[in-house]
Design a protein that fits this description.
The chain has a two-stranded antiparallel sheet with strand order 1-2. Strands 3-4 form a two-stranded antiparallel sheet. It has about 60 residues and is of the alpha+beta class. Strand 1 and strand 2 form a beta hairpin. The chain is rod-shaped and about 70 Å long. About 5% of the residues are buried.
């Protein structure tokens, strides 16, 4: 039995349903796991790193 194919709305690739993002409700979002990482996960990690660096910098400046 062949798995149903769905199209990723970010890159346009036709992939099996198992390669698309699985949400907590059990449904699939029309974004492949690779695009999910590129557009959502990686930028949020980058923002967290920048926030951490900014806090360290502010702490250093506030020391007497």
């Amino acid at each position: 039995m062949e798995e149903e194919m769905m199209q990723c709305m970010k890159c346009g690739a036709w992939l099996p349903r198992s390669k698309l993002e699985l949400m907590k409700t059990g449904t699939r979002r029309r974004v492949c796991n690779h695009c999910k990482w590129l557009y959502y996960v990686k930028p949020s990690r980058d923002r967290a790193i920048l926030r951490e660096l900014e806090q360290k910098h502010r702490f250093r400046l506030s020391k007497p």
